[in-house]
Amino acid sequence: MTTIEERPVATETEAPARAPLDAAAIRADFPILDQSVNGHRLVYLDSAATSQKPRAVIDALDAYYRQDNANVHRGIYALSERATAGYEGARVKVAKLLNVNDPHEIIWTRNATESINLVAYSWGRKHISRGDVIVLTEMEHHANLVPWQLLAQEKDADLEFIPITDDGVLRQDVFDVLLRLKPKLVAFTHVSNTLGTINPVEDMTRRAHEAGALVLIDGAQAVPHLPVDVQAIGADFYAFSGHKALGPTGSGVLWARRELLEAMPPFMGGGDMIREVHLRRSDWNDIPWKFEAGTPDIAAQIGLGVAADYLRDLGMDRLRDHERDLVGYALDVLPREVPGIDLYGPMDPEIRGGVVPFNIPGVHPHDAAQVLDRFGVAVRAGHHCTMPLHERLDLGATARASFQCYTTRDDIDALANGLKEVQRLFGV
Amino acid sequence: MTTIEERPVATETEAPARAPLDAAAIRADFPILDQSVNGHRLVYLDSAATSQKPRAVIDALDAYYRQDNANVHRGIYALSERATAGYEGARVKVAKLLNVNDPHEIIWTRNATESINLVAYSWGRKHISRGDVIVLTEMEHHANLVPWQLLAQEKDADLEFIPITDDGVLRQDVFDVLLRLKPKLVAFTHVSNTLGTINPVEDMTRRAHEAGALVLIDGAQAVPHLPVDVQAIGADFYAFSGHKALGPTGSGVLWARRELLEAMPPFMGGGDMIREVHLRRSDWNDIPWKFEAGTPDIAAQIGLGVAADYLRDLGMDRLRDHERDLVGYALDVLPREVPGIDLYGPMDPEIRGGVVPFNIPGVHPHDAAQVLDRFGVAVRAGHHCTMPLHERLDLGATARASFQCYTTRDDIDALANGLKEVQRLFGV
Amino acid sequence: MDDLYRDYILEHYRRPHNFGVLETPTATYEGSNPLCGDRITMQLDVEDGVVREVGFTGRGCAISQASASLLTDEIKGKPLADVSSFAATDVLDLLGIEISPARLKCAMLSFDALQHLLDELGAKPLANDPA
Amino acid sequence: MDDLYRDYILEHYRRPHNFGVLETPTATYEGSNPLCGDRITMQLDVEDGVVREVGFTGRGCAISQASASLLTDEIKGKPLADVSSFAATDVLDLLGIEISPARLKCAMLSFDALQHLLDELGAKPLANDPA
Ligand SMILES: Cc1ncc(COP(=O)(O)O)c(C=O)c1O
Ligand SMILES: Cc1ncc(COP(=O)(O)O)c(C=O)c1O
Q1: Class of the CATH domain delimited by C2-120
Q2: Is B385 an active-site residue?
Q3: DSSP E strand boundaries for A59-132
Q4: Do B1 and C32 make contact, defined as CB atoms within 8 angstroms?
Q5: What pLDDT sits at residue C1?
């Protein structure tokens, strides 16, 4: 067992006028951006699917495997002590990013999907029974929908959904009605991965709590893009993916309040999550390790710690400013430069993260993405793991551009130019 | 969706006299070994916990993040196509290592622990009911024990255990008796991580099948150390950890027969494991993706593919020869050089993998490991995630040295010399 | 780009052949590629073992629409036996363009629907999923 | 190495003080550190609020045995009130050696048992797990 160093996280007082991000300097930190694709500069506009990684993260992985690699927690030798210090130290860094006081509340997972499944299996199977209500929203990613379907099916529980308006905002009035059903759990996304909508998570959490529900927030599109203070939000569970937050693939996080985690049964069984094992019964380890069965993805979580520091150094407020600016620019430029383009989601950059879904009438988004690729522009096309949302908006599919700290207005110009070529080719 | 290239795997006919591994040349492939610890050459003898990684694997991770990083399967642009090709191509490489014909039968997991939990949750919860018998062994790693305890508890099923002899060999006569209980599942380790015992998996699988049971084999200590041909073994499920097989942390594999996988319900819910999602119901994707919810650890599995090729290039037969030689050498040298040392497990290198557990009477294994560390020698001390086995052998804990392709006789000499220092210091 | 979006592909996309609903279909199948939201409904009108009429409706990308257009042209008027021997690679030949793995499902959507129809008509067992 | 395995540590390990079972214990607690297979049973004999006798048995590494030996020496004869104010860091001071994170549980095994005993005796609430 290892102690996790706990330090109170100082809340930084931000200077009133924030210097904007220096995107050009930042781009130099991301080696992958320095390449050409099909003869054009790579314009990576798929950060909502996964982010690129700064050199500091890539170097940390390299250094780990060249110097420190060993299994954690159980080794009394230099490498294992270094690996353990790195692995547990990363937890402290991520705790700081989320303004979590107790790093033991940070559970390492592979991704947001596993974080949510962990809650559905461990908390859900214990607390949800026949007829219980779970409230979700129409804009959920499949990761925050399918686990609850599986649970509801097993337990014969009911799923209810907060609908959206046509421009992709949650119907808070309907939410109030659904709360009268006394749901056991309300689970919703902090930021929509498809429409960019930033939901009023503090307010929704408060109301859900008043109605007696626990609250799970899917922060996959929030943690990488705006300041997230889980204490201020006040939710019970908060999940995100490290690989979308400049960290390595295989890194992810579930945060939950200590009392909840301690009362929850384990999810997976195996090494490191146990205290004592006998042939027919076992006792569990303390949190967070109770939920981390087997050899974890040590390198990935260490890399996520480095990514968390990188994000904090950038300043999440400044990153948010940067993306707000980009969204405003995109919502302004695209309709002007690409006549006829359909845009979806809230048009107010104040309640919108760096996600811009669109369609060119007469051109399937697959074809648009394919043609854009010939100009080095990488966007996603499809349903972005939100099929019910697409059904609701009566869309077969959409194309989506999404941003990160390394995205620039030039990238959006390149997108606009590429879309003009799409229109030219398809004669629309 | 992506096609996985399927090629029949040519079974190589091995030349009768095999050239031994050139351990010195191999060591040069592992950058981490070129360091000193506490003023001594690093002698890494904890490969059973996790292996070190060859440069080719480390470089593959680096190249992935510097050139190709993107989410897989859903991107119609160059990076995503490269990432997908790497990710699915790694499946083909691992299929070859295991002599699996259909790469769709290779499910990516984080580690052997997750592989086994996947079977317990998905297959187990569907097929195990009250009073059903699952047969395990007394030498199982907690990863192949605790998931079945959790399942048995939920379903009120019975666990039975094949006992071991005092030198750590399974009692096959008792296994025959247990098979008369008509177990639904027999799950056992291929090679013991604590004693090194190589179990007769083909024979045990055949007998279990004759008794009508399915067979799960925990190959965590086999795949990295000896030729594993899952077709020849004939089991139903085979699990291993990539990070113990020269691959990155976060890489792991479950192999199972296609019919079984297709009939199994999903484990975790989320993106990529679905075909269609509606608000209240969903359909599942084809295998293997049905079991790979959310963004996978793309980089780690690509790295595991490179590791699989590295192992095949070495030749698993030659690696086995190498470790057999090391075990024979250790079992010969240690009792001579370290008088009084207690050794455990089968003394016949023919049925023993590269794992040597020991105790110095009068010295706790923690202290032995700590003192060895001062001489740069890294061994593990504790229960090695086999508490019931330690109870059975009436041992509080053991120290354990374990080998890989880069281990040499010099390393074992360094261990012997270190242990002499331990004895001197403790006056035993 | 020019490799994929050749003029005849775009032409089939804009004005697909055999697009529409049959009056007296012998068999109807609706297939989808949920990953991209593409859907196709394909219908066959079979008489005396010969495909008299074929029609499809649905939405999809240029690749899936062009391949449905080309494929339906190809099978119209043919005996079921001939249609049954049609293989996935034949569809790729019909398309005549290089299809990347990411787009294979698009190209195969109509072929996949055809396999289901043939299966329903007892013309042959389901071929293995090509992608 | 010399830092950790000082002579007095090894001496306490070989011949621990207060090793044994009490005849009339007021409270008994068995603690374990399953990760290394260490176990300790600690007993207190308390009269008029004073620790008259203390004893421990069990198996463990040099660090855990020496720390139990030093800790039991320290508390014997002391009023419960004083013993209650004993903190984890005081144990580290008693040991007088640098303990790495990996060995902290070893060093704290006896202290942990003592906390449970004090809790049982109502002397004070359980301190937070130090490791
Ligand atoms: C035999 C055996 N099974 C399972 C495991 C679990 O492996 P992992 O921790 O990678 O899941 C191990 C490794 O410790 C092992 O040795
Ligand atoms: C809002 C949201 N939730 C959950 C997920 C799932 O993330 P992952 O695939 O990393 O588990 C995503 C990413 O696709 C997302 O955007």
Answers
A1: alpha beta
A2: yes
A3: 106-109
A4: no
A5: 43
Please report, rounded to a whole number, the percentage of residues in chain A having pLDDT higher than 90: 93
ipTM score for this prediction = 0.93
DSSP string, C51-109: EEEEEEEEE--HHHHHHHHHHHHHHTT-BHHHHHT--HHHHHHHHTS---GGGHHHHHH
Indicate contact of C with D: 3+ CB pairs under 8 A: no
Q: Phi first, then psi: what are they for A274, rounded to 5°?
A: -110, 160
Q: How far apart are CA B284 and CA D8, in angstroms?
A: 65
- pLDDT over threshold 50, residue A396: yes
First vs last C-alpha separation in chain A:
64
Amino acid A353: pLDDT: 98
Determine if residue B384 is left, alpha or beta; phi over 0 gives left, psi from -120 to 50 gives alpha, anything else beta: left
Q: Which residues of chain D have pLDDT under 70?
A: 1-2, 124-131
| Structural contact between residues B194 and B400, judged by C-beta atoms closer than 8 angstroms | yes
Residues contacting A329, CB < 8 A, separation 6+: A409, A412
Question: Which residue out of B385, B392, B417, B420 is catalytically annotated?
Answer: B385
Which two tokens mark A50?
Answer: 């996964």
Do the chains contact at B35 and A378, CB–CB below 8 Å? no
DSSP letters, B228-253, are: --HHHH--SEEEEEGGGTTS-TT-EE
Contacts B371 to D, Cβ<8 Å: 1, 5
User: Which residues are within 8 A (CB) of B15 and not within 5 positions of it... i.e. 6 or more apart?
Assistant: none
Q: Across the interface, do A85 and D130 touch by the CB < 8 Å criterion?
A: no
C-beta separation of B297 from A110 below 8 A: yes
CA A73 – ligand 1 centroid, Å: 14
* Chain C residues with beta carbon closer than 8 angstroms to that of B73: 35
Specify the 3-state DSSP secondary structure of B16: coil
Instruction: State the DSSP string of B371-425.
Output: HHHTTTEE-EEE-TT-HHHHHHTT-S-EEEEE--TT--HHHHHHHHHHHHHHHHH
Residues of chain B below pLDDT 70? 1-17
The whole-number pLDDT of residue D4 equals 87
CB atoms within 10 A of CB A280: 15
Band the pLDDT of C36: cuts 50, 70, 90.
Answer: confident
Distances (CA, A) of B287 to B239, B264, C31: 16, 10, 19
Our answer on whether the CB atom of B221 is closer than 6 Å to any ligand 1 atom is yes
| Domains of chain A, each with CATH number or no CATH | 23-54+315-426 (3.90.1150.10), 58-313 (3.40.640.10)
Task: For residues B186 and B159, give the distance between their C-alpha atoms in angstroms, rounded to a whole number.
Answer: 10
Residues recorded for chain A: 428
> Can you give the residue ranges of every domain in chain C?
2-120
Q: What's residue B3's pLDDT?
A: 52
D32 has which bridge partners? D39
Burial grade of A12 (CB within 10 A; 0-12, 13-18, 19 or more): exposed
Q: How many CB atoms lie within 10 A of CB A42?
A: 20
Average pLDDT, chain B: 95
**Residue range A302-308: mean pLDDT, rounded:** 98
DSSP H/E element including A342: strand A342-343
| pLDDT band at residue C123 under the 50/70/90 scheme | confident
> What b-and-e string marks burial along B4-37, b requiring 16 or more CB atoms within 10 Å of the CB?
beeeebeeeeeeeeeeebebeebbebbbbbeeeb
Predicted structure pTM score: 0.94
- Those residues of chain C whose CB sits closer than 8 Å to some CB in chain A are 1, 4-5, 10, 14, 34-39, 59-63, 103, 106
The pairing of strands D50-59 and D38-47 is antiparallel
Contacts made by residues A347-352, CB under 8 angstroms, sequence distance 24+: A347/A167, A349/A324, A349/A325, A350/A324, A351/A169, A351/A197, A351/A198, A352/A195, A352/A196, A352/A197, A352/A198, A352/A324, A352/A327
Letter for the amino acid at B1?
A: M
A177 by DSSP, 3-state: which? helix
